[in-house]
Design goal:
eight-stranded parallel barrel; globular; single chain; alpha/beta; TIM Barrel
């Protein structure tokens, strides 16, 4: 799907014709956010922008951009994949490759909370802003909020996210708010909490960000007692894929159960599908698509 000639053309366009990115964005054929099934299946490709290259047991799995693009193209070629969540560089590569027609495209916004950094929870907005999301014709923007009540960096991120939700809503663009309760271990390592009560509290905070929630969608992990977790909101919600390691079968079953809840409208998954343990991207994407659209 990305032979030598096509890859060289992409690199040449980057160097000689940067104006083609905006041209391809204007020419992109768009589609409604939700299709006939009323669900949404997005492939995530914004990890490298936060310094995350690991997938499974491979610490540098996503370091090769051509390999990553080939895997994304394979996923996007599946009719059950509705679109992409990506950082500006990845989205622009795919625009130059003419790979985003009839796809929902969500641009990631805050990526400065680098994995393992001392400032990780002061997750500043260093990628897309609402103005550029509108200018590029994207369907929305995604922001990540890791809530740690003991870290003042959380407050700065919340304030910035509230401004972003407002700016997107004023442009009638989706604000996809990813919520992850978090805490520091004794050695300073950041840990994501899997406690349903912590996630319910996070949903309450994230749902109220900005001057309106009319265009807000949530993105949350699958935890225990998802029925009770989802009872805390009426907002449309997408499930977070994450990196399951050797627990892929368990993770897929968790998606299946959670998608039976009416507020859950779909799935955003990246490493789980692009770097499956058996290497079969088509199989992993096909199984996830059947779970999302077959309910």
């Amino acid at each position: 799907m990305l032979d030598d000639d096509r890859f060289r053309s992409l690199i040449d366009d980057r160097a000689r014709h940067p104006e083609r990115i905006a041209e391809r964005a204007r020419a992109r054929r768009r589609r409604p956010l939700l299709g006939e099934t009323g669900t949404l299946f997005l492939v995530a490709a914004d990890h490298a922008a936060r310094g995350i290259l690991k997938a499974g047991d491979r610490p540098m799995a996503m370091a090769d951009r051509r390999d990553l693009l080939e895997r994304i193209l394979t996923a996007l070629d599946h009719p059950g994949v509705d679109g992409l969540l990506g950082s500006p560089d990845v989205i622009e590569d795919l625009l130059l490759l003419d790979a985003l027609h009839e796809k929902v495209v969500i641009g990631t916004m805050n990526r400065a909370g680098l994995a393992g950094a001392s400032w990780e929870l002061d997750d500043r907005f260093t990628a897309y802003d609402a103005e550029q999301i509108e200018a590029m014709g994207l369907e929305g923007g995604k922001m990540l909020i890791r809530l740690d009540m003991a870290d003042p960096g959380t407050l700065a991120t919340l304030e910035a996210a509230a401004r972003a939700v407002t700016a997107l809503a004023r442009r009638r663009r989706v604000a996809l708010v990813e919520l992850l309760p978090a805490a520091r271990e004794g050695d300073g390592t950041l840990r994501i909490l899997k406690d349903p009560d912590a996630l319910v509290r996070a949903i309450g905070v994230g749902s109220a960000l900005g001057v309106t929630s009319a265009w807000t969608w949530l993105k949350i992990p699958v935890v225990d007692d998802m029925q009770r977790v989802m009872a805390s909101t009426t907002l449309p919600t997408l499930l977070l894929g994450g990196d399951p390691g050797d627990r892929a079968r368990e993770v897929f079953e968790g998606w299946r159960r959670a998608l039976a809840i009416p507020q859950v409208r779909g799935l955003v998954a990246g490493r789980t599908l692009l770097f499956p343990p058996d290497g079969d991207v088509v199989r992993a994407v096909s199984e996830a698509a059947a779970i999302v659209h077959g309910r």
